[in-house]
C-alpha cells in the first residue's frame, strides 16, 4: 500500500459513485470509492487499510427501494465497522431525510455500539447537488462547492480539523525526509538511475548499521531503519514552517490552552494518557529494550534460588515497594499478593548502535494495582506529620501512573538490584508491557546517576 486514504465514499449505485468520484477529482480531493452490494460485499482487509479515514461519504440507502431505518441500519453498521475502524471521523450521509438519519444513528448506538466506532460529527448532503455534467464551467463550480462543503464539515469540529492538519504536516515532513535521502543518493548526477538506486540502498543500510549495530540490523533491518529515520524525521518536523494562522487555528481548537484554571475532564486519566506516551502493552517482544516481564513462577517458588540471586526472600523484596506497617495479617497478605515482582530490560541505547552486540541488563521492578496506591507511599522518617514519600529510599524510581488493558497500576524500580541476563534466562517470565523510549531514556539516566553518585567518609 502506498498511502492510507483520508476520505472514502461508499454507494450501492455505481453511477452515483462515479459521479461523486469525478466531482472529487475535479476538486483535487483524493478519495477512495468503494461500491457496495448487500449480497456480495465483503470488507476483506479494509479495516487495516482505512485506519486513517477522517471523512466517510455514505449513501444512506444501501438497499434498493424506499429507505427504512430498521432494514438499512445493519448495512450502515457493516460498512462503518470496516471503513472507520478507529476514529475520529465525520460521516456524511447522502440524504435529505434528517429524521431517518437520526433514527439510524440511534439504532447504531443501541444495537451496534460494540462493533461501530461512533462518528465525532455527522452531516447530510444531497449528492444530486454535486453531479458532474460535462460542462467545464458548471463542473468547476460544482467542484468548488463540494470542496467548500467538505471544508465546512471540518470547521464544525475545530479540534478534528487541526488534528487532520497536523497529520498532513507529519506526512509532509516524512516526504521531505525521504527527499533529503534521495538528494544525498543522487549527488551531482541523478540521471545515473541505477547507481542512485544502489546508493539509496547503501544509505539506508548504513543508517541501519549505525542505529542498531550490524548484527542486530541484519536480523531486524526494518526496525533498524525505522529507528534511524525517526531522528531525521523528528528534526524535519521540528523545522516545519508554520502555515499562516496555524497557532491561531489551534487556539480555536483548544480554547482552554494557556489558562491557569485548566483542569482535564474527569473521564480523562493520567494513567491512560501515559499509556499513549510511555507504555506499550500490545507490541511486546521478550528481551526487547524497555520490556517489563514478571519473574517466572518457577523461579519464585524456589526460595534458595531467590536468595542466591537477590540475597533475600520474595517477601523482603516486596517490602522494598509497599508499606506493610500497621496492617492486619490478612491485609498484609492481600497487599503482598497484589505486588508482583518483575524485571525491566534497561540496556543502554548505545548498545544497539555503533556496531556493538547487545548486552541485556535488567532492573528489579514491582507492579502494584492502583487500588493499593496509598500503600506505595512511606512516611517521612524525619517528619512523620509531613507529606509521605513516594518510595522507601532513593534507589527506588517510581514511574508515572500506567494503564495496562484498562487496569491502572503503580510501577517502581529498585536500582540496587541490576542483573545481566541472557534473553531466555529462567528468571524472566511473561512480558506484560514495554516502556517507550523517552521514559526509558529518563529511567536510564536516573539509574546511571544513582549508581555514579559520590560518597565520602566524614568525621565530626
Approximately how much helix is present in the residues? Answer: 40-55%
What does the largest sheet look like? 8 strands, antiparallel
Secondary structure: number of strands: 13
Q: What sequence of helices (H) and strands (E) makes up the elements?
A: EHEHEHEHEHHHHHHHEEHHHHEEEEEEH
What form results from the Cα inertia axes?
globular
Structural class: alpha/beta
Question: What Rg, in angstroms, do the CA atoms define?
Answer: 28 Å
Mean pLDDT rating: 87
* Gap from first CA to last CA: 73 Å
Task: Please indicate the count of domains.
Answer: 3
Q: Tally the helices: what do you get? A: 16
Low-confidence stretches: none
% residues in beta strands: 15-25%
Summary, kept brief:
This protein is an alpha/beta fold. The chain has helices at 14-26, 46-49, 69-83, 98-111, 136-155, 158-186, 193-212, 214-219, 221-238, 246-253, 270-277, 297-300, 303-310, 314-318, 329-338, 437-451; strands at residues 7-11, 32-35, 55-59, 90-94, 121-125, 279-280, 291-295, 339-345, 361-369, 396-398, 402-404, 407-420, 428-435.
Topology:
Elements: E1 7-11, H1 14-26, E2 32-35, H2 46-49, E3 55-59, H3 69-83, E4 90-94, H4 98-111, E5 121-125, H5 136-155, H6 158-186, H7 193-212, H8 214-219, H9 221-238, H10 246-253, H11 270-277, E6 279-280, E7 291-295, H12 297-300, H13 303-310, H14 314-318, H15 329-338, E8 339-345, E9 361-369, E10 396-398, E11 402-404, E12 407-420, E13 428-435, H16 437-451
Parallel strand pairs: 1-2, 1-3, 3-4, 4-5
Antiparallel strand pairs: 6-13, 7-8, 7-13, 8-9, 9-12, 10-12, 11-12
Helix pairs in contact: 1-5, 3-4, 6-7, 6-9, 6-10, 7-9
Amino acid at each position: 500500500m502506498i498511502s492510507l486514504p483520508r476520505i472514502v465514499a461508499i454507494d450501492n449505485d455505481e453511477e452515483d459513485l462515479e459521479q461523486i468520484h469525478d466531482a472529487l477529482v475535479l476538486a483535487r480531493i483524493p478519495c477512495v470509492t468503494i461500491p457496495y452490494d448487500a449480497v456480495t460485499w465483503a470488507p476483506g482487509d479494509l479495516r487495516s487499510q482505512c485506519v486513517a479515514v477522517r471523512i466517510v461519504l455514505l449513501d444512506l440507502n444501501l438497499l434498493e427501494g424506499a429507505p427504512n431505518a430498521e432494514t438499512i441500519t445493519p448495512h450502515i453498521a457493516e460498512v462503518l465497522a470496516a471503513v472507520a475502524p478507529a476514529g475520529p471521523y465525520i460521516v456524511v450521509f447522502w440524504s435529505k431525510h434528517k429524521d431517518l438519519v437520526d433514527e439510524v444513528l440511534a439504532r447504531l448506538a443501541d444495537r451496534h455500539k460494540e462493533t461501530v466506532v461512533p462518528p465525532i460529527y455527522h452531516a447530510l448532503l444531497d449528492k444530486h447537488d454535486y453531479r458532474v455534467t460535462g460542462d467545464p464551467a458548471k463542473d468547476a463550480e460544482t467542484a468548488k462547492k463540494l470542496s467548500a462543503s467538505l471544508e465546512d464539515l471540518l470547521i464544525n469540529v475545530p479540534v478534528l480539523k487541526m488534528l487532520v492538519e497536523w497529520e498532513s504536516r507529519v506526512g509532509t515532513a516524512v516526504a521531505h525526509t525521504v527527499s533529503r535521502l534521495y538528494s544525498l543518493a543522487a549527488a551531482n548526477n541523478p540521471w545515473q538511475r541505477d547507481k542512485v538506486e544502489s546508493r539509496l540502498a547503501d544509505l539506508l543500510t548504513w543508517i541501519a548499521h549505525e542505529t542498531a549495530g550490524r548484527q542486530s540490523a541484519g536480523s531486524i533491518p526494518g526496525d533498524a531503519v525505522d529507528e534511524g529515520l525517526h531522528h531525521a524525521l523528528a528534526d524535519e518536523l521540528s523545522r516545519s514552517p508554520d502555515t499562516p494562522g496555524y497557532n491561531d487555528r489551534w487556539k480555536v481548537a483548544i480554547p482552554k490552552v494557556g489558562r491557569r484554571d485548566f483542569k482535564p475532564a474527569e473521564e480523562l486519566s493520567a494513567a491512560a494518557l501515559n499509556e499513549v506516551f510511555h507504555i506499550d502493552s500490545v507490541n511486546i517482544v521478550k528481551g526487547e529494550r524497555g520490556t517489563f516481564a514478571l519473574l517466572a513462577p518457577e523461579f519464585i517458588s524456589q526460595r534458595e534460588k531467590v536468595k542466591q540471586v537477590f540475597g533475600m526472600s520474595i517477601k523482603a523484596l516486596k517490602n522494598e515497594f509497599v508499606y506493610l506497617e500497621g496492617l492486619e495479617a490478612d491485609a498484609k497478605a492481600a497487599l503482598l499478593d497484589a505486588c508482583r515482582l518483575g524485571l525491566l530490560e534497561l540496556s543502554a541505547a548505545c548498545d544497539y548502535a555503533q556496531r556493538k552486540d547487545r548486552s541485556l541488563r535488567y532492573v528489579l521492578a514491582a507492579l502494584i494495582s492502583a487500588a493499593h496506591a496509598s500503600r506505595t507511599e512511606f512516611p517521612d522518617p524525619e517528619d512523620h506529620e509531613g507529606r509521605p514519600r513516594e518510595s522507601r529510599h532513593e534507589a527506588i524510581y517510581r514511574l508515572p501512573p500506567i494503564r495496562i488493558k484498562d487496569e491502572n497500576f503503580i510501577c517502581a524500580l529498585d536500582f540496587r538490584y541490576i542483573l545481566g541476563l541472557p534473553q531466555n534466562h529462567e528468571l524472566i517470565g511473561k512480558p506484560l508491557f514495554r516502556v517507550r523510549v523517552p521514559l526509558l531514556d529518563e529511567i536510564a539516566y536516573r539509574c546511571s546517576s544513582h549508581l555514579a553518585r559520590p560518597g565520602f567518609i566524614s568525621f565530626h
